[in-house]
Amino acid sequence: AEVVITPYEGPVGRSTDATTVEEARPIGLQAILQGEVAILVLAGGQGTRLGFTGPKGMYNIGLPSQKSLFQLLAERILKLRQLSGEDAQLPFYVMTSPINHAETEAYFRDKEYFGLGEENVMLFQQGMLPCLTTDGKIILETKSRVAMAPDGNGGVYPALQSSGALNDMTKRGVQYLHIVGIDNALVKPADPVFLGYCISQKADCGNKSVWKSHPHEKVGVIALRNGKPCVVEYSEISTDLAEQTGEDGRLAFGAGNICNHFYT
C-alpha cells in the first residue's frame, strides 16, 4: 500500500504565545499538586559514543557544577515539587536496561536519590533484542552466544507492563505521564506549560518539538502518515518533502522530534 506523508494538522500550542503559556501553566501545576503527574526518563543506554563507559545518565557534560545528567534532571524535579506548593509528590521512573541497571541503581543509592526520596524513584529494566547485520544475519558475541542490545525507546511499553511500573502509577493515581530522553541536558521534566496545554486539549498524547534549523537537519519530524499523526524519521522523508514550505514560507515538515512525550 502506498504511504502518503502530509504536514501535521491538529492542535498546536506555541511557547512563543504568551496567552497559551499563561493559561496552560496553572493547569499543569494543579495536576502536579494533585499527584496526577509522573515523569519517566529513558536511560537504558551507555555513554559509549561520548567516550564514557558508564550509564549515559551518569555522564558529566562539563558544567562548572560537574553535575551529571541524572542530577540535573532530579534537581529540576525537586524544584518543581517545591514550586507546585506543599512539596507535591512527583514520582520519577527511570527505565534502565540489563547492561546498566545495577550501576544506575547503585548510583542513585549512593547519591541518596538526590533528595527525591527512595519511595518516589522507581527503576525498571527494558528488554533486550538480538543484534542483526544490515542484511539480517544474527551477530554472535562468542561462538555460542548471540549479541544482544536494549530494545530501543519503544521497549518502554512492554517494560512498563511487565515491571509493575504501570500498576504503581495506577495505585498512586497518576493520570498523566511525561516521558523524556536522558541525553537532553535542557529538558524541563513535567513542564507545567506542556502538560497544561495537553490536558486542556484533552489529548491522549502530545509531543514537544523544536523547529528544525534547516531542511536537511537529521531529526525526525511530526507529520501525518496516511492521515494519522506520527514521527517520520529523517531517513524516511524525500528531499522534496524536506524542502517543502507552506504559504507562510516556513518548512511544511519543520517540527523536529526531540523525544519529549505526553501520555494519559
Description:
- This protein is an alpha/beta fold and 264 residues long.
- Helices cover 27% and strands 23% of the residues.
- The chain contains 7 helices and 13 strands.
- The strands form 4 sheets. The protein has a 6-stranded mixed β-sheet, sandwiched between helices.
- Strand 3, helix 3 (101-110) and strand 4 (121-125) form a beta-alpha-beta unit.
- The longest helix is centred in the first third of the chain and has 16 residues, at 18-33.
- The average pLDDT value, as a whole number, equals 93
- How do the strands line up in the largest sheet? 4-3-2-9-13-10
Which percent range fits the helix content? 25-40%
Oligomeric state of the chains? single chain
Number of helices: 7
Element order: H for helix, E for strand: EHEHEHEEEEEHHEHEEEHE
List low-confidence stretches.
Answer: none
Using only C-alpha atoms, the radius of gyration works out to: 20 Å
Distance between the termini: 31 Å
Task: Give the biggest sheet.
Answer: 6 strands, mixed
A few lines on this structure:
The protein has 264 residues and is of the alpha/beta class.
